Amino acid sequence: MNASWLYPLKGVYYFFAHPFFYPLLRARLIPCLLLSLFVLANLFFWTYLPQVALLAIFHGPLAWAQACFLVLGEGAAIVALLFEAFFVDETMVDVFDATLINEGLENLVAKGRILETDSTNPVKRLGKPTTATVYSPFSLRQIAEFICFLPLNLIPVAGTPAFLLLTGYRAGPLQHWRYFKLSDLSKKQRQANIKSRQLSYTWFGTIALLLQLVPVLSMLFLLTTACGSALWAVQLEKCGRDSDDGVTVAPDYADDPV
Hints:
There is one protein chain. By secondary structure, the chain is mainly alpha-helical. It is globular. About 4% of the residues have low confidence. Strands 1-2 form a two-stranded antiparallel ribbon. The protein is built from twelve helices and two strands, in the order ααααααββαααααα. 65% of the residues lie in helices and 3% in strands. The relative contact order is 0.18.
């Protein structure tokens, strides 16, 4: 199986290589870009220098760069929350489902929504959902942990990588929540499948987080990551069929969404 950390990057290429995704992007692009600019501008204006002053105690001259990274991380978290508030989570579900359809897994998508038959365009085939269209469930625990992990950035050199890995550990499995639901897995089955691929999910979540730290483009990368997540699900399905073990689903997540 291909390395899991590559799938968020593959998602970027796949998204832009398939024009049928573009209408989903255009519908949200301008408001999302303006929202990202607004959030980052305010964070840098109000919080950047105070954080530089605090980090200078621990990092010295590196405080300017560390504070920049910290503000970008805070911005990514806020933007992700606002992204869901603007109902873009449904757009991520559409990207995920359209990718599965384009890769020949329409039977899996049909478990969660009606599929139109009068078009070959995967996006236009997406009909009315028959189950909840949630890409990644809201988790109060995950937000609390993100806030608790932020002080790790105060630790010289090792702090930032530790923050990324721990955040990726928690966030990675949520990228396959839609896949779990379409596969009709129970909570126990989800946890078992997640546990078997925890390291892979951690790397996937870490790279996805790094992409979201790119200024202004964080919302765009949320969409492309959904595409990459679906490509990984396709690979898992193929491996499961080849081994005749049924559905093979992503690993680890023991968190209960609130």
